[in-house]
Amino acid sequence: MASDGNDTADTNVKQSWRSSVDSKGAFVRKESAFRNWITADGSSGFKSEANRYHLYVSLACPWAHRTLIVRSLKGLEDIISFTVVDWFLDKNGWAFTDQKPKCSLDTVNNCSYLKEIYAKSDPTYSGNITVPCLWDKKTQTVVNNESSEIIRMLNSEFQEFCKTPEQEALNLYPEDLRPEIDGLNSWIYPQINNGVYRCGFAKSQEAYDEAVTGLFDGLDKVEDILSSKRYLTGPNLTEADVRLFTTLIRFDTVYHTHFKTNKKRIVDYSNLWGYVRDIYQIPGVANTVDQEHIMKHYYVSHTTINPYSIVPVGPQLELHTQHNRDKL
Ligand SMILES: N[C@@H](CCC(=O)N[C@@H](CS)C(=O)NCC(=O)O)C(=O)O
Which residues are listed for glutathione binding in this entry (predicted)? Predict the structure, then answer.
């Protein structure tokens, strides 16, 4: 586990679920602070270049997970490097370690904690220290820490660097589908992606009831859409699917138990369960999913919810089984 007594780590980090609760006990997620854009032509001041940008991610985090999936689907593995933080989120925030599988020390900035990287970029920054965090090695700054924007940059601004023509042709936010994708994101984010957190971090029955009702209404709505469409907008995968997938893949192993989202599991919805397996089986996706990081992070880090940090034994998800969604 990340140590508490490090010299560089003397101030505690404000963790979002501890600090962001309104007067009715409802969890309110803070806006991301770093919102610069990388562009292919460099007009934004951040030009897309090979080996210039670095992602700091947690394999446990659904928001960071989005960026790893898009990086992989677009074939940008050799262009954008990344570091996986310790799955344990301690009072000093995300830490670097080489003592746990898939985690590594920070070889880009030589820091012990992610908060030092934010401080390097802006010494006055006092907001949340979150992953994903997209770092520019050239200007030594955080470019962006908002996953929904990072995935759009990876989707459109690194075209010349994609490994294969198919990866270059893949467009997760095509012009003609933008209104539909934006429409889906506008309710899937509050009801489902952030909805699970609103259930888990609720500090009143009222706040939980409201969040859990919205969550399962949202899941029912998605289940219905997926009864006639392979993906949310039709036959092709879009960013709306990537964004939904990272929540669904954590649902039965964590949210159902830890965040009390237990009206149903994803395996109980026939379309949603087939859809999760369909996306999981797309080449490049499965190796971004790590249930050990996912389970240990939530169950061990959130001691306000799970005081003894006991990680439950299951369930074991059969993600490789046939889904037949290609027949839709
Ligand atoms: N809006 C952000 C949210 C990122 C976020 O909240 N990440 C969580 C991990 S799942 C985090 O780093 N939390 C650290 C903390 O709250 O201290 C995004 O989508 O990129």
Answer: 94, 146-147
- Calculate how far, in angstroms, residue 132's C-alpha sits from the geometric centre of ligand 1: 7
Q: How far is CA 20 from CA 60, 192, 298, in A?
A: 20, 18, 17
185 in ligand 1 pocket by Cβ < 6 Å? no
- Give the residue ranges of DSSP H helices in the chain: 16-19, 62-73, 114-121, 147-156, 165-169, 178-188, 195-200, 205-225, 239-250, 256-258, 270-280, 291-301
Residues of the chain with pLDDT below 70 are: 1-19
pLDDT of residue 12: 57
Determine the atom of ligand 1 nearest the C-alpha atom of 32.
1
Residues 116-126 have pLDDT tens digits of: 999 999 999 99
- Asked if 60 and 156 count as a contact pair (C-beta separation under 8 A), the reply is no
Residue 41 CB coordination number (10 Å): 8
Query: Is any ligand 1 atom within 6 A of the Cβ of residue 149?
Result: no
Would you state the pLDDT for residue 15?
A: 64
Q: Is the CB of 16 within 6 Å of ligand 1?
A: yes
Two structure tokens written together for 37: 């854009």
From atom 15 of ligand 1, which residue's Cα is the shortest distance away? 15
Atom of ligand 1 lying closest to residue 94 CA: 14
Spacing, Cα 67 to ligand 1 middle (Å): 13
The interface predicted TM-score (ipTM) is: 0.98
The reported pLDDT for the residue numbered 7 is 34
146 is in an annotated binding site: yes
Of 97, 91, 87, 116, the residue nearest 17 (C-alpha) = 91
Q: Which of 119, 136, 108 is nearest to 38 (CA)?
A: 136
| Cα distance between the two ends of the chain | 46
Pocket of ligand 1 contains residue 92 by CB under 6 Å: no
